[in-house]
Structures are given as structure tokens and as C-alpha cells.
Amino acid sequence: MTKIKAEKEGNDIFVYAYEGGQPIGFAIGEVSGDQVKLETIHVDACRRGEGIGSSLLTAFISQARAGGIKLLSVEMKTEFGLNVDKTAGFYRKHGITVDGEKLKMDF
């Protein structure tokens, strides 16, 4: 069973996914005022497609809201061979608006 742990440390939000005590994914974001930028979200390649990324993002959003955050932003970095359509679809599914390579969610 996957366990999700979220915490805020200084200006950063960290969310981790564990199974059997082993890390299998994480999300990291930086808070600035009432905004947070989701810097990265990662799930081990062999565990993708199981909903772990969705669980990480949901926990990240919850942690941000609990901290009084009003705006979440994400920047898709296409230089890393990112499948923009697939990635944008993932974020849209969670209510995040896509505008070119920038994504945002107002709380």
C-alpha cells in the first residue's frame, strides 16, 4: 500500500510516496508569498500509470491550500523531451489551467 507524506519546510513543500518503506515518488515546490511553484514531480518509471503521480499532486495541492497559498504554477520544461500533450492532460485532470508551456491553478 502506498503512503503519502507531505510537509512544509521553510519555503519548500515536499511530498513523498512510499511503499514498503521505500521511496517511489516525490513532488517538490517553492513557496513565495501566497504562491507556490511546483518544481518537479517524479514517480519511479516502473510505477508510472498506477495513480501515484495523481496522489502526489493531490497531496501537494492540499498542503499548499492548508498553508494559505492562492496560486499554484508549473512550468513544463520541453527541453527534457517532455510529452507536452500527455503532461498537460495530467495537470488538466487536476483542474490546472494550461497556457502554452505554463500551467496555473487559482485556489
Can you walk me through this structure?
This protein is of the alpha+beta class and 107 residues long. The chain has one domain (2-106): Aminopeptidase, CATH 3.40.630. Helix content is 23%, strand content 46%. It has two helices and seven strands. A seven-stranded mixed beta sheet has the order 1-2-3-4-5-7-6. Strand 4 (35-43), helix 1 and strand 5 form a beta-alpha-beta unit. The longest helix has 15 residues, at 52-66. The model has no long low-confidence stretch (mean pLDDT 89).
Strand order of the largest sheet: 1-2-3-4-5-7-6
Integer count of domains: 1
CATH class: Alpha Beta
- Residues in helix, %: 10-25%
Global outline: globular
Q: List low-confidence stretches.
A: none
CATH architecture: 3-Layer(aba) Sandwich
Question: What is the overall pLDDT average?
Answer: 89
Give the CATH superfamily: Gcn5-related N-acetyltransferase (GNAT)
Tell me how many strands there are: 7
Structural class of the helix and strand makeup?
A: alpha+beta
Q: Separation of termini?
A: 30 Å
